[in-house]
Design goal:
heterotrimer, A mainly alpha (271), B mainly alpha (273), C alpha/beta (264), A: 271 residues, mainly alpha, MetI-like fold, flat, B: mainly alpha, 2 domains, 10 helices
């Protein structure tokens, strides 16, 4: 009996050892991954020694930003507010772009496969191209200023939001839809009374979250001439006015923090 | 219930419905008016109007016709820039993953050594999150020179902020029972983290890291605008030279790259979760 | 010490004047005095909120008591935080929700019972000495779960998870096992199976068991000694035979505060 138990224990110990042993293919996979990463590092000039020696250099640059040049504030508050306006209208435009495309891309709403996949295709194009590239294109088309910035955010975030809207619609509880159809409601009525009430809080929550992200993006649109504080930022960096850079970064940080807190508060209150 | 009292009950119900409805209308009207006022003012400030959009359309159309057709022969030139973009994203994300392990442990209430460390870490991570990778890239280009290395660092810092905050929140929401069980065996703090916390957060950590890689690839496509390597550089160069057919090729390649990365990362994520 | 019957008469745990209050207003324990003999299978019976859980957690100091002393093998274990790991190592614990780390294998879960014996740095690479692995497998075999050693914990049924949790507690090589409502989330057949394992293993290894239960029928079946708790006080201490309907009424329905007032 006890010999039996001992034998059993030993066999399990052996099995454990076998499971933990390194096999040739494990080593091969690890070696391949390491080789791939080394190749990547080589391609981007990432070398251990230079990376470590870059740390003090970067710290020095951030050190030069302190103390911020407070007097510069009078020149940046206006573009900073403009950044918020761009983000706000970007969000509104994104909703205008996203809602119809999102509805068309959702299977509960549009029954035609062709409509669905072409709506999804357009959303993918909008989504995949970064807001900055959109901004460059719009600046080239309609000129400098915050207006192309808002359009750019509208396109990029319209694609992102549209896809999220479509997913939200696909995931709604089907019970109320069935119940509504059973009463003889039309398609539009089903959308208005069974789908929209279910997805509306989620839509608002997505919009708030992507507004937060939009504010962060809007701070760089100015680098390509699409309005907001990015222009002041890139100018200050080009002129090596590090204390001005420090103030702008601090201001962006404060702005983003306040918006994050507000939006988190609203989202937590909503459900 | 008699017919009369039934009638009163119904009319009382209707009256209440009307009251509730009116109150809701007033509330909606007030909020709507505020929203419209804010939007109208904002639109005025950024010179945005339906007229501006309408006036812009012919220009946009004109620009679009100049982009088409993309110069497909230019694709072969973009090969190395595409690879560089991917390499920047991979190393940026990898560095972020490594950095976010200590930062997420320091920035979670239940694993932080001290509450002051917790708050300091959170402020630091929020700063990394708030500052766009392009801003970091600009600063790093000044600090370490033009090239993909600055891009890697920029992606790494911003992604660290994002990843570490997410993981810290995951650590805070682990199942307390499993932690209590480990504590009750007499395990040390570090052992509890190793055997109780880490196994619980690994799947969401891996999943979010893959998502971050996807986002980083998208970001890496524009780092070149400020000289930090990748496809963005070709994009801005061809535009400055008015070679719009080549610009269109750049956009096409970026679109395809993002689409493929989105597809692969989505597949990988579904596999781990 | 040399008495032949020493094993049955030595005191394993002795609790004096144990109280626990939260913020000075909520009193979970209001002066617990009790002695537990070595190898005893003791059931603490009472409704939820009686303080059973807090009592067990005070014993291995997952909860720090407000007042009172606990002696384990005649050594005071309260008051000093330096010996905390060693104290907890001596007390195995079994939970209502099993509390296995769901994503780790059954064997690794049992191995976590060995953590207190090893330094933190040694655990860094999830590596255990051979001796620990042997102990863990033996403990798994005791609850007949060795055939599932390499499965992930979350693939097991509730009863199986609780058996693994018992094995984890055994791997600590404890002198006492604290079981906090170990069968509250299991159906009756499985519950009896788990309690049987707990009792038999404890008997074989001479481990003292303190088991919280709220079901009277299991208590009658398994307990050698029963302690009844109500509102943070001990209101009964005796054998299964002494657990009459009147006693049960006292544990579950009567307010002990009123009772003491009546006696006065």
């Amino acid at each position: 009996m006890s010999l039996d138990v001992q034998r059993q224990t030993q066999s399990l110990l052996d099995e454990l050892a076998a499971r933990q042993r390194w096999h040739f293919h494990h080593i091969l996979i690890v070696a391949l991954i390491i080789a791939f990463l080394v190749w990547c590092a080589n391609g981007v000039d990432l070398r251990p020694r230079e990376t470590f020696s870059a740390v003090p250099v970067i710290a020095d640059y951030f050190g030069r930003m302190w103390p911020p040049k407070w007097s510069f504030f009078s020149e940046i508050w206006k573009p900073a507010i403009e950044t918020l306006y761009v983000a706000l209208w970007g969000n509104v435009l994104a909703t205008i772009v996203g809602v119809p495309l999102g509805l068309l891309a959702a299977s509960h709403v549009s029954s035609s496969r062709i409509v669905r996949s072409s709506a999804m295709g357009i959303l993918n194009v909008f989504r995949s191209i970064s807001e900055l590239i959109w901004a460059i294109l719009f600046v080239a088309a309609v000129g400098l200023g915050p207006f192309p910035g808002a359009l750019a955010l509208g396109m990029n975030y319209g694609g992102i939001l549209g896809r999220l809207y479509a997913e939200a619609i696909e995931n709604v509880d089907k019970g109320p839809i069935e119940a509504m159809e059973a009463t003889g409601a039309s398609k539009l009525q089903v959308i208005m009374f069974a789908i929209i009430p279910q997805v509306l809080p989620q839509f608002v929550s997505y919009n708030l979250y992507w507004f937060e992200v939009g504010v962060r993006s809007a701070t760089v649109l100015g680098m390509v001439g699409a309005g907001g504080i990015g222009f002041e930022l890139i100018t200050a960096i080009r002129l090596f006015e590090w204390r001005e850079v420090g103030l702008i970064l601090l201001f962006i940080l404060a702005m983003v923090t306040v918006i994050d807190l507000a939006s988190t508060y609203i989202r937590s209150r909503m459900y | 219930m008699t017919a009369v009292s039934f009638e009163t009950a119904v009319s009382a119900g209707l009256a209440r419905e009307a009251q509730v409805r009116h109150r809701r209308y007033i509330k909606q009207a007030v909020w709507g008016a505020i929203a419209i006022a804010v939007l109208w003012y904002a639109a005025h400030q950024i010179k945005f109007s339906p007229y501006a959009v309408a006036a812009g359309v012919p220009f946009m159309w004109d620009f679009l016709t100049r982009l088409f057709p993309p110069d497909l022969s230019y694709m072969s030139v973009l090969g190395s820039a595409t690879i560089e973009t991917i390499q920047i994203a991979i190393w940026g994300t990898l560095l972020a993953i490594i950095l976010s392990i200590p930062f997420s442990l320091l920035g979670a209430r239940n694993t932080t050594p001290h509450i002051i460390v917790f708050h300091a870490t959170r402020v630091f991570l929020n700063a990394l999150r708030a500052i766009n990778e392009l801003v970091f890239a600009l600063i790093f280009v000044s600090a370490v020179g033009l090239g993909p290395f600055a891009g890697v660092l920029a992606i790494a810092l911003h992604a660290t902020g994002m990843l570490a905050k997410f993981v810290a929140e995951e650590i805070e929401s682990v199942d307390k029972g499993q932690i209590e069980a480990q504590l009750s065996t007499g395990a040390s703090r570090m052992q509890v983290i190793l055997f109780g916390v880490i196994p619980q957060v690994i799947p969401s950590f891996v999943g979010y890291s893959i998502y971050r890689l996807d986002v980083s690839i998208r970001s890496a496509t524009v780092l070149g605008l400020v000289g930090a390597g990748g496809l963005g550089f070709s994009l801005i160069q061809t535009m400055k030279l008015f070679k719009y057919h080549q610009t269109a090729t750049c956009i096409l390649v970026i679109f395809l790259l993002v689409l493929v990365s989105d597809w692969i990362c989505g597949k990988l994520r579904r596999k781990v979760i | 010490m040399l008495m032949p019957n020493a094993q049955n008469t030595t005191t394993m745990l002795s609790v004096r004047g144990l109280t626990k209050s939260y913020g000075g207003t909520i009193h979970a324990l209001r002066g617990i005095d009790m002695e537990v003999k070595k190898g005893e299978f003791l059931v603490i019976l009472g409704p939820s909120g009686a303080g059973k859980s807090t009592l067990l957690r005070c014993l291995n100091r997952l909860v720090e008591p407000t007042e009172g002393q606990i002696f384990h093998n005649d050594v005071q274990i309260t008051g000093n935080r330096r010996n905390l790991r060693a104290v907890r190592r001596d007390f195995g614990m079994v939970f209502q929700q099993f509390n296995l780390v769901r994503r780790l294998s059954v064997l690794t879960n049992v191995l976590t019972g060995r953590l207190a014996y090893r330094s933190s740095w040694r655990s860094l690479f999830y590596n255990f000495p051979q001796e620990d692995k042997r102990i863990a497998i033996e403990c798994l075999a005791r609850v007949n779960m060795d055939h599932k050693a390499f499965q992930r914990a979350d693939t097991l049924s509730g009863g199986e998870q609780q058996r693994v949790a018992i094995a984890r507690a055994l791997a600590q090589q404890p002198t006492v096992i604290l079981a906090d409502e170990p069968v509250a989330s299991l159906d009756p057949k499985i519950a009896r199976q788990v309690l049987t394992y707990l009792r038999e293993v404890a008997h074989e290894l001479g481990i003292t068991v303190l088991c919280n239960l709220h079901q009277v029928e299991y208590t009658r079946e398994y307990a050698e000694r029963i302690v009844g708790m109500s509102k943070g006080r001990i209101v009964f201490d005796g054998t299964g035979a002494e657990l009459t309907d009147d006693v049960i009424h006292r544990i579950y329905y009567r307010d002990p505060d009123e009772e003491t007032a009546e006696e006065k």
